[in-house]
Amino acid sequence: MTGRIAANDTGPAPAARLRGALGWNSVSWLVVIVLAAAWEGLARSGIVTAFMLPPLSVVLKTILHDAQTGDLFANLGLTLYRALAGFAIATAAGIVLGIAIARVGVVRWFFDPIISVGFPMPKIAFLPIVVLWFGFHDVSKIAMVVFDAAFPVLTATIAATHAVERELLWSARSMGASDRQILHEVVLPAALPEVLTGLQVALPIALIVCIVAEMKMGGVGLGGAMITASRFADSPGVFAGIVEIAVVGYLLIKGMTLLRRRLLAWHSESQAPATA
Amino acid sequence: MRYLPLVLLALLWEAAARLGIVSAADLPPLSNVIVAWFGMIKSGELLTNGAASLYRAGAGLLLAIVIGGGLGVAMAWWRPVNAVLSPIVEALYPLPKSALIPVTALWLGFGDGSKILLIFLGCMIPVTIGAFNGARGCDRALIWSARSMGASRLRVLSDIVVPSALPEMLNGIRTALALSFVLLVSAELIVSREGFGYMIGFLGSAGAYDAMFAVVLTVAFLGFAADRSYQRLMSWMLLWRVA
């Protein structure tokens, strides 16, 4: 960790360590089954009303029904499109700006205080301003995702670029590499693992910010569907949303882990025996 | 000096709005925003809504720290507790907590209760994980020496395990603090009749953009200031540690 920005990074370290310690990276199916059974049992036992906690079987039936009518795929598709488009833009912008901040003095001077003030801010508070600027449609939701998801990418990229070993840069330069070559063949690959960690933090943020924005604005999308269900006191509909979001979130996180393993196939972390 | 770029940004904002580079409807001049802020302070709107928000965030966070911290230490200290609770923590951990906004609204309505529950549920996880990691990482040799010198198990828990868990738990609380602001504002934006988030949404739909910007900046500043003050507090609380 170097630099003032890195010092403000609230990174994923403790949680990741815990998951590592417990083997939490692979959600055990047994746990899922036990919890599902506990949910069903609690809901059927009459301790809570069906309104407070509808049985899982009812919730799954609701999801199945939505899948048959096609609503599920319309909502899911739109939410994923917004979240992933925002995530992609945040990734590209965050990496480019992050490298510029780490390597160019003026850029660092300008953005360092902005990032260190912006990082701990609740960025979702800016949602109505983003709506004011970009309207009620996809663009504003995507813009909100970019604004929120760019921060972890940015701070990870800055820290990673700072941490590239001097020896690597010196050797490359002494062997006659140009600035461009150094960036492409030394800095980017060396920074990749930590940048990917930033992306792994940013992806769930992208999904949830998109869903919150949809909840606020309504309309098509997982968040919009949930808030509509909540307004009509349709509790199976609300819980269907929770299950859908949990599954989508889990799949996205899993996909990101697989992508990491693939991109870092050359890196020593992938050569180590798998613990998951 | 370090924050000069922020001053430049503020000047740029004022100039862009005054010179008509952007329309005043999209970006009211900063000076108007400041005037609106003082207006809302004088009328008391900002203070009553702010008090409602701070009460919700504070109550939720306090519950999360007490219960989450206790659970984390208990999970590390008693194996059966860990066996029962870790699947639940495991299941809750990856679920984005903001997704629970409609559920807490369904359960407890639009008032304080639903926000406190939401913030409590969301913030408990990082505190529990921090306390658990810290307590588990406690130096075994310390426990053995205390035991061999005749300390009771309870004494070991309070004098060794809890202090060892403190640094990691304080880190977890920092994550929880930031999360509490996010959850509070999200929930208030979506389902509420008072609070900062409600004000932002309400002023925005009423077209009172200078006031809306004032509240947004207030919330953003509070989030930033809370994090900075907490960092101070944290380093003060950890002064006893040998650096």
Structure characterization notes:
Chain A is an all-alpha fold and about 280 residues long. Chain A has one domain: MetI-like fold. Chain A has 13 helices and no strands. Chain A has helices at about 5, 15-20, 30-45, 55-70, 70-105, 105-120, 125-135, 140-165, 165-175, 180-215, 220-230, 235-265, 270. In chain A, helix 4 (about 55-70) packs across helix 12 and helix 5 (about 70-105) packs across helix 6 (about 105-120). The radius of gyration of chain A is 22 Å and the shape is elongated. Chain B has helices at about 5-20, 30-45, 45-75, 80-90, 100-110, 110-135, 140-150, 155-190, 195-205, 210-235. Chain B has one domain (about 45-235): MetI-like (MetI-like fold), CATH 1.10.3720.10. The mean pLDDT of chain B is about 85. Chain B has about 240 residues and is mainly alpha-helical. At the A-B interface, helix 2, helix 3, helix 6, helix 7 and helix 10 of A face helix 1, helix 4, helix 5, helix 6 and helix 8 of B.
Topology:
The complex is a heterodimer of chains A (276) and B (243).
Chain A: H1 3-7, H2 13-22, H3 29-45, H4 56-69, H5 71-103, H6 105-118, H7 127-134, H8 138-163, H9 166-174, H10 179-217, H11 222-231, H12 235-263, H13 268-271
Helix pairs in contact in A: 4-12, 5-6, 5-8, 5-10, 5-11, 7-8, 8-10, 9-10, 10-11, 10-12, 11-12
Chain B: H1 4-18, H2 30-43, H3 45-77, H4 79-92, H5 101-108, H6 112-136, H7 140-148, H8 153-190, H9 196-206, H10 209-237
What's the quick description here?
The complex is a heterodimer of chains A (276) and B (243). By secondary structure, chain A is mostly helical. Chain A has helices spanning 3-7, 13-22, 29-45, 56-69, 71-103, 105-118, 127-134, 138-163, 166-174, 179-217, 222-231, 235-263, 268-271.
Total separate domains of chain A? 1
Provide the structure class of chain A.
Answer: mainly alpha
The stretches of 5 or more residues of chain A where confidence is low (pLDDT under 50) are 1-12, 20-26
CATH T-level topology of chain B: MetI-like fold
**Gyration radius of chain A, in Å:** 22 Å
